[in-house]
């Protein structure tokens, strides 16, 4: 079972976002067997649950199903494409969505093959005294990244994506 499954398909997203089906993915529910079976078959058709075996119970054979992941994330790609300029919040969200899609796909492949996925993540907080300081930082960061890319880029090497983003932190809840 994956820790997180990223749902890319719009039909699968609609299925997973249905309140009854979302509850089935998350926990046991008190519903009639036939109703549960109907929803589980729909979840199975979209790859959100998978068979885990069978067991005899009286004169019946029960199919055992398990969720394919501990949690699910609906990719913004499943909800439609967003066009935006590179200095907008929408563009940053689109970059984040692309990163989620790409890394989720690579993580699934790495898990299937038993390989480790070579990734790097940096996360920090910075406070700028002014908009001018923020702009100067952006200029220096761009120059530093451009210099590093120029030094280490090899046209014959394995391509990696580098995303650098900055956004204001949300205010703490009171």
Structural write-up:
The protein has 174 residues and is of the alpha+beta class. Helices cover 44% and strands 17% of the residues. It contains 5 helices and 4 strands. It has helices spanning 10-17, 19-26, 33-45, 89-113, 131-152; strands spanning 2-7, 49-57, 60-67, 69-74. The strands form 2 sheets. The chain has a two-stranded parallel sheet. Strands 2-3 form a two-stranded antiparallel ribbon. Helix 2 (19-26) crosses helix 3. The longest helix is centred in the middle third of the chain and has 25 residues, at 89-113. The protein is elongated, with a radius of gyration of 22 Å.
Helix amount: 40-55%
Major beta sheet, specifics? 2 strands, parallel
Spans of at least 5 consecutive residues with low confidence: none
Output the strand order for the largest sheet.
Answer: 1-4
The averaged pLDDT comes out at: 82
**Looking at the structure, what is the overall shape?**
elongated
Radius of gyration of CA atoms, rounded to a whole number: 22 Å
Bin the strand percentage: 15-25%
Number of strands: 4
Distance between the termini: 37 Å
The SSE string, one letter per element, is: EHHHEEEHH
Instruction: Report the total helices.
Output: 5
Alpha-beta classification: alpha+beta
Q: Would you kindly provide a brief summary of this structure?
A:
The chain has 174 residues and is α+β, with helices and mostly antiparallel strands. The protein is built from 5 helices and 4 strands. A hairpin with a 2-residue loop joins strand 2 and strand 3.
């Amino acid at each position: 079972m994956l820790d997180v499954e990223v749902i890319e398909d719009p039909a699968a997203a609609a299925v997973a976002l249905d309140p009854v089906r979302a509850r089935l993915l998350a926990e046991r529910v008190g519903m009639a067997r036939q109703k549960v079976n109907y929803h589980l078959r729909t979840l199975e058709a979209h790859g959100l649950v998978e068979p885990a075996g069978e067991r005899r119970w009286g004169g019946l054979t029960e199919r055992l199903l398990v969720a394919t992941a501990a949690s699910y994330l609906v990719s913004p790609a499943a909800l439609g494409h967003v066009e935006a300029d590179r200095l907008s919040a929408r563009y940053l969200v689109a970059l984040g969505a692309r990163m989620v899609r790409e890394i989720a796909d690579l993580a699934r492949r790495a898990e299937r093959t038993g390989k480790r996925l070579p990734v790097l993540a940096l996360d920090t907080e910075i406070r700028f005294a002014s908009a001018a300081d923020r702009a100067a930082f952006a200029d220096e960061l761009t120059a530093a990244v451009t210099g590093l890319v120029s030094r280490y880029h090899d046209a014959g090497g394995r391509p990696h994506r580098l995303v650098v983003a900055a956004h204001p932190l949300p205010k703490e809840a009171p």
